[in-house]
Amino acid sequence: MAPKNAVVLVSGGLDSATVLAIAAAGGWRCHALSIDYGQRHRSELDAARRVARALGAHEHRVASIDLTIFGGSALTDRAIEVPTEPSPGIPVTYVPARNTIFLALAMAYAEVVEADAIFTGANAIDYSGYPDCRPEYLQAFERMANLATKRAVEGHRLAIEAPLVRMTKAQIIREGAERGVDFSLTVSCYDADSQGRACGRCDSCRLRRDGFAASGIADPTRYRG
């Protein structure tokens, strides 16, 4: 029996690397998709290529869309600094509608490769409070996808799989390690330099560092300075 196809969103960070490993272990033929949206931490795209290759993705594509034309986020507007301290509310690293855009692109790709699932690393436990990481959002997108696509209308429903959504960062790291993820290949920092070295101060660095400490697994992150 031929394996089923899945589209896996791969950012280059540790969460999406773990998701790719989970999907591959589940017998899915993984079509990895990364998005070049004009993000300031562009070294994550190099990390995504490394991760897709190391974890045996069937193919890896990079879709380009320029979200810098809207700005509104520290990740797409260099005039807005990446915060180095936790702040109340949704932080300025939130990119307006990013996950909706990413999932929509993955949905289009899924139609072309006849995929039955989209895997995403969305997480609602150890995260920055982004509204498009919540389970109810992912459930709503799945309902929409099954109204909006030719394959679904013809009887091939599309599932949105978010295996990490209720896991802590430490649990994610342990899961990835058990599945052979080499976390030294990944980049999580919102302000990583061109070599992928982390700032060690942003919210993403804090969550990653605390996750490794709680997991009991050595942190392979390269820091600059």
Helix content: 25-40%
Kindly report the CATH topology. Answer: Rossmann fold
What can be said about the biggest beta sheet?
5 strands, parallel
Low-confidence stretches: none
Q: Can you write the helix and strand succession as a string?
A: EHEHEHEHHEHH
The span between the termini is 52 Å
Give the count of helical stretches.
7
CATH classification class: Alpha Beta
How many domains make up the 3D coordinates? 1
Strand line-up in the sheet with most strands: 3-2-1-4-5
Fourth-level CATH superfamily: HUPs
CATH-derived architecture: 3-Layer(aba) Sandwich
Number of strands: 5
Q: Calculate the mean pLDDT score and round it.
A: 95
Radius of gyration, in angstroms, nearest whole number? 17 Å
Assign an overall shape.
globular
- Overall structural class, as computed from helix and strand content, comes to alpha/beta
> Roughly what fraction of the amino acids lie in strands?
5-15%
Q: Can you tag this structure with a few keywords?
A:
7 helices; Rossmann fold; alpha/beta; 225 residues; five-stranded parallel β-sheet; globular
Q: How would you summarize this macromolecular structure in one to three sentences?
A:
The protein has about 220 residues and is of the alpha/beta class.
Task: Kindly describe this structure.
This protein is α/β, with parallel strands linked by helices and 225 residues long. It has one domain (5-215): Rossmann fold (3-Layer(aba) Sandwich). It has helices spanning 14-25, 43-54, 98-112, 135-148, 150-153, 169-178, 203-215, and strands at 5-9, 29-36, 59-64, 115-119, 159-161. Strands 3-2-1-4-5 form a five-stranded parallel β-sheet, sandwiched between helices. α1 (14-25) packs across α6 (169-178). The longest helix is centred in the middle third of the chain and has 15 residues, at 98-112. It is globular.
